[in-house]
User: What shape does this take?
Amino acid sequence: MRLLHVIPTMSLRYGGPPQACREMAAAVAARGHEVEIFTTNYDGFGGFEADLAPQELAGGVRQLTFAVDLPPAYLRLSRPLAKALAERIRTFDLVHIHSLYFFTTLAAGFYARRHRVPYVLEPHGSLDPYLYRRHRGRKRLIEALYQDRLFRQAAAVHYTTSDERDLAAPYSFQRPAFVVPLGLHLEAYRPLPPAGSFRARHPEIGERRILLFLGRLNFKKGLDVLARAFGRVAQARADVHLVIAGPDNDGYQPAIERWLQAEGVLERTTFTGMLIGTAKLAALGDADLFLLPSYTENFGIAVVEAMACRLPVLISDRVNIWREVQAHGAGEVEPCDPERVAARVLAMLADPARLASYGRQGEAAVRRLFDWTSIGARMEAAYEAIIAGRRPAPA
Assistant: This one.
């Protein structure tokens, strides 16, 4: 098969979708298929990637980056991308279109339909009602102009969890859907950096137990819940320190600092900015508990990364892999409520044996559920069914 992924940006600052696209493409390419990625140089938050040269990614995946060349920049209007799609899309057997409400979605869908190439849509959580309601007027215009038509003619829709599929059902025009999760390569998380590596870079933590948030500083992540919950935990225990690790693309950190200041725990919080590579692994390795009280999360790859590092997790019931976390004993689940989250943190920290069990079972769950080798085979089967004119297996 010759497969094309089209995505607005591959900048790591944008969070999960670029990582998911890159690794999904590599997992299928590893099974002997030719895979390319078309993207733009817009990094998602007002800046531009400097390098437009073609890149060879893992698995032999080829990434082509096209310049955004028409204002306004946030629409990612790229005539070079449209030209490349017009010239080359007919040479692919299937197109996988990532994210909605962008020019890349419009252009890829338009030329795929024109040249009768089947395409898969991946909403990346944008049809969750919590996000679907935001900026509804602007989105409704885009839907009326092109997106509803594009959706109705999609060969299939890819969701990464059954919860994401079910939440999106009212807005997806009953298109054929299949559920295949995201994953990781467990060997990339072995070995972890030596214990204490992260603490050594942040001496203000001392010997306190680390509560770790890892992700973009964003309105949907429940950081108001986290700040208030940590205030209650810190009142009960003097030996805890909160680490908030992730890029602040939206200028959200001052609001978080105000919430922490109101709780009297700002001085017991460390903001690290974005962590990648060894620095991220060091944080995961030194932490005692991973926290993600998101209001919405279509998957939550950072949760899986924590599990891969044997780090117990506490997540909200709006993180769409909460059922897997709960069923496989990798951690605990609570609603987006500061009191409930704080009480659960205290209970988990008070039971070291249970924390160790969560860590072991989380790693085992990653091996069973979230390994890219098996996920690549499932994506391959879905693509082959679509190209053959069949509905992909739903789950």
